[in-house]
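Researcher: We're teaching a course module on how sequence relates to structure. For the next exercise, students receive a sequence and then see the predicted structure as tokens, so they can try to spot secondary structure elements on their own. Here is the exercise chain.
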Amino acid sequence: MAWAACALAFSQNNDWVISTSNFDAQDYFGVTVANGTVGLVSSPEPFKVKEVVLNGAFDTYGRGRVSNIMKVFNTANIQFSNTGFTEEDKNAYNELFSGKNLISHEQSINMRYGEFTSKVIYKGLEVTYTLRSLRHLPFTNMVDVTIKAKQNIKLAPTSIISAPEILRDVNNYFATVDVPGREQIPLMTSTAMSPTGRLKVAASSSWLMEDEHPHLIHEEKNYGDHSLKLYKNLKRGETLSFTIFGTVCTSEQFADPQNEAERLTLYAFLEGRQRNIDRHRAAWDKLWNSGDIEITGRPDLTKDIRFALYHMYSFARAGTAYSMSPMGLSGLGYNGHVFWDTELWMYPPILMLQPDIAKSLLEYRFERLEAAKQNAFSHGYRGAMFPWESDQDGQEATPIWALTGPFEHHITGDIGWACWKYYQVTKDKEWLATRGYPMMKEIANFWVSRVEENPDGSLSILNVVGADEYAEGVDDNAFTNGVAKVALDYAARAAEELGFAPDPAWRTTANRVRLLTFPDGVTREHATYEGETIKQADVNLLSYPLELIRDPEAIKKDIDYYTPRYDVGGPAMGFAILSILYNWTGNGTKALQLFKQGYQPNRVPPFGVISEMAGGSNPYFATGAGGMLQNVIAGYGGLEITDKGVERTVETKLPKGWGKLIIKGIGKDNETIQISE
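Model: And here is the predicted structure for the students to work with:
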């Protein structure tokens, strides 16, 4: 049986597909296929996945002697075996797959539908492999394989479940499940324990051929993996197609992950190939139909923007309490922990375009409010002090050698800011009463307890690491003080919105916290700042997104002073803030230069996934993608979140050559705006 729709046409050249061929396997940075729960990272090797990452599952191992997001079983690898062949067949097989007979290896990612396709053409064989992390089934992935013979051949395609080295006590199982009126369903299952034994990890997979009931051979040759193999003779011109469904989960998600993995795999199998594809694509259609950005006349930029959106949508999902790490589900970068990167950088474009997904990110924080209150207590403060690096428990998970853990306190204000922004967009008063305000109240109480009084009656926040993380142990950091003022004011507004009398100390404290300036009026980054190189945006965040400095001349003073002081090797997202503010103050040439600088030098081969720094090697940097998207939406679209929802507050101009900027799916009413050059 052949599937006409299985293989993606690599000649397709549109705003939704990124293709690569003849790439260098030694200079290869994979693209991620994910559904907000399971992330699978592509490999330069044909028909393989580099690693599988599961959101919400952590254990202590690896970097920093702290928790790390879990690598889990890989159910998506396919290999071609020659074991059991006669000597003659083995020689023919080796000749078939030899390097001299390889014509091409092409890979592509279809962003519209979250589908990664690898197509390998040999002189005697074509193999197409399509991978989906199913959007409608959060723990299940699906692999389609089509093999077309160009000569008479004997093959043994093999589906594998393999365990990463971190898992221990691996057990492998195989069974066939009788379904009345149906064939027996083959089911491979593996279980293991996480490195410390905190979690039980399970995976299950099955092999579907809808037009026949294949005779499959189960093999277990190595500790940590096992496989299902099919022997098949193909005549020239014949095609073999099959589907592998795989499910991964842990005891973090289910009390009995082994049985649940098997149930979910059987469910996908019995739903059938086409129904799963239809439901998966319908889920992606729903996302793009309610949140998309296009620049007419510039398909290259449209593709860049959609690639950033694709990763935002891939790394999070509605209806969960999962958040996003700086690297999303693209690997183990930053241990999979949750930082300010979520609330300040990735969350705003998600909130404007997909409020239901934004709600999940805040639910993650709410479920860890008690841990934040304990953290404040442990540091001698009131209220809630959220950790700089947060894991599944909401504990401080920063390695002890990094001062950001005990001292980068602005994260707590960032979360308060994000809560009010969600309410401004959705006007969901029940959420505000049951989720938002309980967090905002404790955040405000933290800042009241955190400030110290100066002789002139003003208030200071002492001994912090700034948003500019080169500034350690400083007093009155501009962004820290600014976001504290905003969080205190927003807590008071939330109380009034719910009919409560706010604690008078909240607004009194907000009004007295000082923001320092140089004699010429430029905002001073901290009390001892004298013009040193800075890592990333700090002072300039007071203008956007905090809205504390709005006078155009004051904004211009600050950006003109700090732009040359940004580390050119610093993280991508800082340049986006500068671009936004230059655009707002009428310098479109500088804005466009910084827009490009904010992501283009960070792209790495072969797909152009972005790293944290220019020339870096740690993609995918979702924080940078969030900054770039804010630049498009706020910098060029002029959109901000206000009490009216998402509205255009700034009359902006598009660069020459940009036709129309079309932003679709804005706010809770899914509005569309068009801005012309």
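Model: If you want an answer key for the exercise: Residues 598 and 620 are 14 Å apart (CA to CA). The two ends are 51 Å apart (CA to CA).
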